[in-house]
Amino acid sequence: MKYERIPYLVVFDEVSAFKDTYGGQIGKVAIEAHLLRPEVPSDSVVIFSHPIGGGAWLPLVSTLAKRGVHTIYCNTRYRGNDTALIMERAVMDFAACIRDAKERLGYSKVYLGGWSGGGALSMFYQAEAQDPRVTHTPAGDPYDLTAAKFIPADGVLLLAAHLSRNLTLTEWLDPSITDETRPFDRDPRLDLYAADGPRPPYSAAFVAEYRAAQIARNRRITAWAKQELAALKAAGLADHERCFTVQGTMADPRFLDPTFDPSDRRPNWCMLGDPKVVNDGPVGLARFTTLRSWLSQWAYDESNADGLKCAARIACPMLVIENSADDACTPSHAARLMDAAVHCTKDHHVIEGANHYYFGQPELAQQAADIVHDWIAAQR
Predict the structure, then answer these.
(1) C-alpha torsion 153→128→150→122, nearest 10
(2) How far apart are CA 305 and CA 264, in angstroms?
(3) What totals of helices (H) and strands (E) does the chain contain, helices first?
(4) How far apart are CA 324 and CA 312, in angstroms?
(5) What is the DSSP letter of 287?
(6) Is the pLDDT of residue 15 over 90?
(7) Is residue 18 scored above 90 in pLDDT?
(8) Contact 186, 262 (CB under 8 A)
(9) CA 98 to CA 76: how far, in whole Å?
(10) 340 CB neighbour count, 10 Å cutoff
(11) What is the pLDDT of residue 23?
(12) What is the DSSP string of 46-58?
């Protein structure tokens, strides 16, 4: 089916004590969005968003439009750069796009397209729409989502979705780093990439020890970030920030051991390439961050956008599509999210052989689009 791609902006006012994105008018937030409108009219739309956006041209998005599904991709203000990203502000951006789709574009039914990291963002939005709680960021900065009165969506789609940024980063952290001031002095007993380090297949006991060490490392960084913020406030610098780097963020045993959380994924590989390289490369998760951003998006215990906690707070129809050869999200991600969403009616599908992005797999992207199309039709 033919469709028209319409780029547009959603602009709203926001007062902030400091600016966390580069450029743009102070006091204004401009959200870039694309409406992919098929030639057949519809009163329903799937709206995608992701904390750092950039997915308007992904295979699934355009394939949905070709299938006749009205689709919007909404970038947050942090498009392409999560260095200072605050999840509470990202979900406010998503909310502005959803409200615009209903009030200006006239869609009566909205379904949230939670692809990859957009899954947790979608559940965070729906949780705050149905059970509003958040009035401050984890850093203690006022940011009242309850006053925004989010419009509940008619359903949530989890499409190759991982748990959330805080939980996924923790499962990818390299626990062989025990001192953040000396990140390249590593404990070979826990270093998956050391010449004399552990080798797959990994025992259940080793994985349990490894996971505990990953959580402990995340909590050490969190404790330090809180101490630094407290010191700034005590010095009368409440609006100041500190930037820092985090090495070793791509060391999940699942990347090396295909028998752990088994699927059709390629071993010794991740969605960003060779995990040994990415572990310390510039594109690893949370490589460059700030005190506030760490607490909001990466902190294991502190993030308000924790996917499992948000899933437990929502009640709506949920479609879950997982890809059997996904090199980012293994089967346990979908399973845990579905288990957490105890108040949702759930439909679950697996696309056999599909990778995370459907790159080079147009027929599998089409299969996923067919499932989404038919599921939306069944919600009438």
Answers:
(1) -40
(2) 29
(3) 11, 10
(4) 25
(5) S
(6) no
(7) no
(8) no
(9) 12
(10) 20
(11) 81
(12) EEEEETT---TTS
